[in-house]
Amino acid sequence: MKRNLLWILTLMMASMCYAEDITIRYNGAKAEVKQNTKDSVNVIVDGANVNIESLYKEHKLTLRLMGKSDNGQLTLKTAGKAKIELDGLTLTSQEGAPLDLKNKKKVEVVAAKGTNNTLTITACNDTANHKAATIWAKDKLLLSGKGTLNIIATGDGCRGIKTKKDITIEELTLNVTTSGDNLGEKPFGFGGGGMPDFGGGMPNFGGGMPDFGNFPRPDFGGGFPGGGFPGEGFPNFGGMRPEENDSTNEDGFEGFGGGFAGKHKYVASTKGIASKGKITINSGNITVRTSTAGAEGIEGKEGVIFNGGNVDVQTTDDAINANATIEFNDANVIARSMGNDAVDSNPKGGFFMPFGGNNNQEDTTPAIIIRGGTVYAWSQVGSPEEGLDCDFAPLVVEGGTIFSVGGGMGEMPSVPSNEDAKQPTALLIGLNVVKNEPIYIYDGNGKQINTVTIPFSLRRSASLVSSPAFKIGNTYTVKTKGYERTFTLDEPFTTVR
């Protein structure tokens, strides 16, 4: 008898532990809500729009969402923490965020194990009420789970994910795509007098514009493309600017001959993942795609930290951007920009002068720190855009496999000093990157250290490379079709011409 009572009690406790406070099943134009916890929790259902307000401060409110609706939304206002489990959810909002989180404490959004979940937003006209994102959160946001979450923003001005505070991502397979145009534009200029024409014109990239076709993932087994200074003549200054606005398209400095065209601030640009706080990626598989001017892929105003996982970002604007330190600790990262810097750190809001390099004597806070993992940072437009842009602040290399492609001002891209190159690092000047042609690095004994294939062409790029296999005093060879260069790492940081 006692054994039976114990068994029944165990079942009851298990049921209590795993029961959600609220379960929402979307079914076309309506939502069915099962509310287990009613005290201090108010639920209003209007068709497929569900509005929940919880006054709990200590209790973590738990919700389970499933089903499908082409015109639905969850608005959640919480005084305490909350957990939202997505269990095979397909939810599209025709106006405003499908998940509109007015949270005062952290909300965790979990993709249930083995499930595929898709959130889509098709219009973002109500930007004044902070609904211009597929997921919008007022406070901290944790995205996790062993399932898949697809974030799709098709409407003009619609971001993928937007928060006012920190974002943390772990375990999750997360795919973010934005495709709308920017919503509203506020241009401001730097004056119309213009700069003198230096006569150099645009740099010659060779072979015309790079192909923007399919983006093959390189072999993370290693490898680097090489680098150098892109083009002849004086480069165009498109893209050099301070980075202080939430949404920008850097069309200014359009060549010395044309003067300053000005910078554009958008009411809402179609960024992928954006936070006014810090973004931390601990694990998982994250893919981000944006296609509009001013639409960064991953933007954390207070910094971006990569602790693990696989991250693949392809954008027109900066692939990864911050107004603080960007840290690469132990993740495999591909950051590719088709029109700006691949990885762009702007300490203290950015630097105005159109130069790169570690020359800042006033601020010693690192802009970019690379400690491990794989960092592939590719800008395919040439000078002055860079693979790794530090705006004069320090670039620190402590480990990891690094390969950047980009330009820089002459031979002044962002580079580490000898003190900051704690792992030997080389700047390769003059390497012609040829689309889909493997680039190899060999040691002095002819042993292949790494190889990588770049999905676009760029004539005479400036590339920063580093590898755990690099040793000071040893000789290495970079080789690709039509190019071969042997060099010795004489110092922690070595320039190879």
Please name the defining characteristics of this protein:
11-stranded mixed sheet; mainly beta; 497 residues; 23-stranded mixed sheet; elongated; 1 helix
Protein model, in words:
- This protein is mostly beta strands and 497 residues long.
- It has one helix and 41 strands.
- It has a 23-stranded mixed β-sheet that branches.
- A hairpin with a 4-residue loop joins β36 (438-443) and β37.
- The N and C termini lie far apart (85 Å).
- The relative contact order is 0.10.
- Residues 6-18, 188-263 and 350-361 have low confidence and may be disordered.
Low-pLDDT residue spans: 6-18, 188-263, 350-361
Number of helices: 1
Tell the overall outline: elongated
Kindly provide the radius of gyration, computed on alpha-carbon positions and rounded to a whole number of angstroms: 25 Å
**Main sheet: strands, sense, barrel:** 23 strands, mixed
Helix content: under 10%
Alpha-beta content class: mainly beta
* Mean pLDDT across every amino acid position: 80
Annotation, overall tally of beta strands: 41
Distance between the termini: 85 Å
Strand content: 35-45%
